[in-house]
Write a structure and sequence with these properties.
The protein has a single domain (about 10-275), classed as Alpha-Beta Barrel (TIM Barrel). The protein is built from twelve helices and ten strands. It has helices at about 10-20, 45-60, 70-75, 75-90, 105-120, 135-140, 160, 170-180, 195-205, 225-230, 245, 255-275, and strands at about 25-30, 65-70, 95-100, 125, 145-150, 165, 170, 190, 210-215, 240. An eight-stranded parallel β-barrel has the order 1-2-3-4-5-8-9-10, surrounded by six helices. It has a two-stranded antiparallel sheet with strand order 6-7. The longest helix has 22 residues, at about 255-275. The protein is globular. The chain starts with 9 loop residues before the first helix and ends with a helix. The mean pLDDT is about 95.
C-alpha cells in the first residue's frame, strides 16, 4: 500500500475541529477480539468491522480518534492491512493518533517514526520517555506532527515507577517538566490519566504549556470534569480519550446506535463543563 497522505497542518485541523464541536472528545478504538459485539467474528475481519462501525457512528462527535495499533498488529500482515484501510478511510479533518507507545533510539526509532508517520499517516503518536531525547527526536523530524509522551498513565500499577521520588519530585512530574522545557510550542504533549484527578490537576497547574492527552475517563473511572478542565485555556490543545464507555455502550445488535448516542452525550456534557470554565 502507498503511504497515506496527510494534511500538512494537523494541529490547525485539530484546533478547527475543537472549535466547531466545542468539546475535547477523543474517540478511542481498542478492538479486542474477545470483546466484540454479538455477531462479529473474533478475528481480523471482526475487529475491522467493529472499528469502522464505531468510527461511522461516533466520529462526528469527536475532535480526534486514538487507535490502539496492538490490536491490529496481533494479526500480523492481515491486521496491518486492516489498519491501513481503516486509516485511509477516516474523515479527512479528524485528528488521528496512533497509540503505539514506542520507545527506542537511533535507526530503530527512525523506522518506528517512518512506519507510523510516513506510511500510516498518523497525525500524532504516543512515545515512552524512558530512553530520553533519543526516543523522541526522530519522531519530530516529521514536520507538524505531534508526539504525546507518557507521563502519568491511567493504569493501576503506574505509580510503581511513575511516582518514585527523584530529588523530592515524583518521576512523572519531572518527565512533564522536562517535556515542557525542552519542546515548547505544542508539538510535544503529555499523556496524563484521569484516574488520579489530584495528580492531573497538579500537573496541569505546574506544567501549563503542553497539550494533555487524558485517558481513563469512563470504564476506568476517571473524573470527567477534571479531564475537561485540563484541556481548557491552554496554548496547546488537549484531548480527553474515551474508549469503552462509547465502544461498549451495548454488546447487542444496536451497538452502533448505542455508541453514537454515548458519544453525543459525552460531547454534550463536555460542552457544558467547558461553558462553566468560560469556554
Amino acid at each position: 500500500m502507498q503511504p497515506i497522505s496527510v494534511d500538512a497542518a494537523p494541529l490547525v485541523r485539530l484546533r478547527a475541529r475543537l472549535a466547531r464541536l466545542g468539546a475535547p472528545l477523543c474517540l478511542g478504538i481498542d478492538p479486542h477480539p474477545r470483546a466484540l459485539p454479538d455477531g462479529l467474528p473474533p478475528d481480523v475481519e471482526g475487529i475491522e468491522r467493529f472499528a469502522r462501525g464505531i468510527v461511522e457512528a461516533a466520529s462526528e462527535h469527536a475532535a480526534a480518534v486514538k487507535i490502539n495499533v496492538a490490536f491490529f498488529e496481533a494479526f500480523g500482515s492481515s491486521g496491518i492491512a486492516a489498519l491501513e484501510r481503516l486509516r485511509a478511510d477516516l474523515p479527512a479533518d479528524l485528528f488521528v493518533i496512533l497509540d503505539a507507545k514506542r520507545g527506542d533510539i537511533g535507526p530503530t526509532a527512525e523506522r518506528y517514526a517512518a512506519a507510523l508517520f510516513g506510511h500510516l499517516g498518523a497525525d500524532a503518536v504516543t512515545v515512552s520517555p524512558y530512553l530520553g531525547e533519543d526516543a523522541i527526536e526522530p519522531f519530530l523530524e516529521y514536520e507538524d506532527r505531534v508526539v504525546y509522551v507518557l507521563a502519568r498513565t491511567s493504569n493501576a500499577s503506574a505509580g510503581t515507577i511513575q511516582d518514585l521520588a527523584v530529588d523530592g519530585v515524583m518521576l512523572h512530574e519531572r518527565v512533564a517538566r522536562w517535556v515542557a522545557e525542552r519542546w515548547p510550542g505544542g508539538r510535544v504533549g503529555l499523556v496524563v490519566g484521569a484516574t488520579r484527578a489530584d495528580d492531573l490537576r497538579r500537573l496541569r497547574e505546574r506544567v501549563p504549556g503542553p497539550g494533555f492527552l487524558v485517558p481513563g475517563v469512563g470504564a476506568q473511572g476517571g473524573e470527567l470534569a477534571a479531564a475537561v478542565a485540563c484541556c481548557h485555556g491552554t496554548d496547546a490543545p488537549g484531548l480527553v480519550n474515551v474508549s469503552r464507555a462509547i465502544a461498549k455502550a451495548s454488546s447487542g445488535d444496536n451497538w452502533q446506535e448505542a455508541a453514537g448516542a454515548a458519544a453525543a452525550a459525552l460531547q454534550g456534557r463536555m460542552r457544558e463543563l467547558g461553558a462553566t470554565l468560560g469556554r
